[in-house]
Amino acid sequence: MINTLYLPELREMLAENNEAELREFCTALHPARTAEFMEGLNADEIWRVLQYADPAVRDEIFGFFPENKQVEILETQDRHEVAGLLAEMASDDRVDLLDETDEAVVQELLPLLPADERRDILRLRSYPEDSAGAVMTTDFAKLGESLTVREALAELGRQAENLETLYYLYVVDDTDHLRGVVSARQLVSAMTRPDTRLSELMETDVAAVDVLDDQELVASKVARYDLLAIPVVDDEHRVLGIVTHDDVIDVMREEAVEDAHRIAGVAPLEESYMRTSILTLTWKRGMWLTILFFTALSTAFALQHYEKNFETYTWLVLFIPLVISSGGNSGNQTATLVITALATGDLHLRDWVRVVRRELVMGMLLGGFLGMCGFIAALIVAGGWFSSTVVAVTLVLVVISGTLAGSLLPLFFKRVGLDPALMSNPFVAGIVDILGIVIYMNVALLLLSLTGQSLKPGG
User: The pTM is what?
Assistant: First the structure.
């Protein structure tokens, strides 16, 4: 609401070219708030406002706009001016933005950038998508191991303006091989010993990731070691850049969204929901809905096989939804837990025996509880001890089947190199639905043959 109220005043400043007030607007608030106040402006108006900010402030404000608005500005504004903005941006943010920009525009912008920035962009864009190299920044503190504390502080003062973070200072030899790390706190604490060399001060046991490592591995290492940044090295252990905690948060959010899509039976979207075309959304959703359709059709064939029994003993039909949903829900619960454990590294393929044991016990406990509930419900609805027993025994067996299917299928898909999050739940639902019908009818027929009871209610 505040943003909307402020827009007329902002547009009036632009109409009057009120330089003093526009400069104050760009500097008086936190850059994030400044960007919020400009949400209702179009790309041309935003760019005009940003011209009144100093380059460093302009870069900060620009970074708080939604990605689609940033891309629109890059694609519609003067190429030379936009190139100046790109040159000021952090290397990783700059590459991420260019990856979302029309390639023809990127090719126009690259020659306008300073040679060092252009080479940096081309190098970072050459790494595979979702790798450590693709998300790292090359703006980090790098110091020689032979420097003293006094010399290191002087060198750090020269580098500081171009650095994204000063949490960790990476110590290298003459050929950029990573030798150790010194925190900014350690360096400041050592000011009382200015002639101490970094080689004596540094920690040599440094957690690092390879430039081609998957970004999920990077995020898990940062979380495991509780780091604010992690160095990225090549095959020869030369330090190439760092991945900072803010990039790790972005990675974790991106992976969480992808996993949520997969678990829901939707192929992950390459762009945001609003920027994805209707045809693309239809395809990504439709292919899995088609798979689910045919698994549901298999359930219909299973029901058809017992059609005569249903015609004779109509009370069996009443509990089909209960049987199918109990098995499917327990299976999907288990599959989600196993998929999450696999994604976080809490679970490995070698643990499959323990997983099966745990889920077997879990299935018995959950199935036993739901079986008792089902027994009482069937007694009320169908009014017979026999029907109640059939429902109770079926629920126990179906829930056990669901938990076993939900635990084994993700592990199987992981083993054969398929994505367990995308593949598991649709197949768990289909398999358990069919199993539920088969178990339900066979339990009823088996108990009938053992007891000589009638399948009619009250029997």
Answer: 0.65
